[in-house]
User: Which sequence fits this backbone?
């Protein structure tokens, strides 16, 4: 009840009391980990997720959240290991493929990121966030033409997303479609005039 009401202090106390009576209560460890994560106590969250997993190996929600905590701490090798463990049991889990692709982008393993994000997009083709990051991975992997194609389909699906339009602008520029890039940048600026990256991209287009 406390957790649903976002009363983290009382919820934390309640789960700790429950664990004193039943130390093998994996759901209480999981819920504690969520509270720790939400209150920026990443080390404690990681320990609590590991406790939950030691009691219930293969607890997918705990595995995924643990991987996210490691990624937040830039511990990408461990995050990738956990995402791959999840996908070894269920390779249709689109969120794990997306998070794996994001981790690979952060590690600058762009070909691996493209592979993971292609799989995520195939499983959830209407998810424009996935398409945006697939477009970014393709662009970083020097596949500008395909990146522009992917991002164009995403912009068509969600024309009001300024960040998506800025990503599309970059792909168009790299694909050599400079006038299209300038037009797209203007649309992004109209949607969000203070979006980070607009001026940098304008400067790059100025010299083309």
Assistant:
């Amino acid at each position: 009840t406390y957790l649903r009401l976002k009363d983290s202090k009382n919820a934390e106390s309640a789960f700790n009391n429950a664990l004193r009576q039943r130390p093998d209560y994996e759901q209480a460890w999981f819920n504690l980990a969520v509270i720790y994560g939400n209150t920026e106590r990443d080390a404690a969250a990681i320990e609590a997720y590991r406790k939950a997993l030691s009691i219930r190996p293969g607890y997918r929600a705990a595995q995924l959240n643990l991987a996210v905590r490691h990624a937040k701490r830039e511990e990408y090798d461990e995050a990738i290991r956990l995402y791959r463990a999840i996908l070894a049991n269920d390779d249709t889990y689109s969120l794990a493929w997306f998070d794996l692709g994001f981790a690979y982008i952060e590690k600058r393993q762009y070909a691996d990121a493209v592979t993971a994000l292609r799989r995520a997009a195939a499983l959830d083709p209407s998810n424009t966030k996935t398409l945006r990051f697939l477009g970014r991975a393709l662009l970083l992997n020097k596949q500008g033409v395909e990146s522009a194609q992917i991002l164009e389909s995403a912009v068509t699906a969600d024309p009001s997303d300024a960040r998506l339009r800025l990503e599309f602008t970059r792909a168009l520029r790299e694909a050599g479609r400079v006038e299209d890039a300038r037009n797209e940048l203007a649309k992004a600026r109209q949607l969000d005039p203070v979006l980070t990256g607009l001026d940098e991209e304008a400067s790059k287009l100025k010299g083309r």
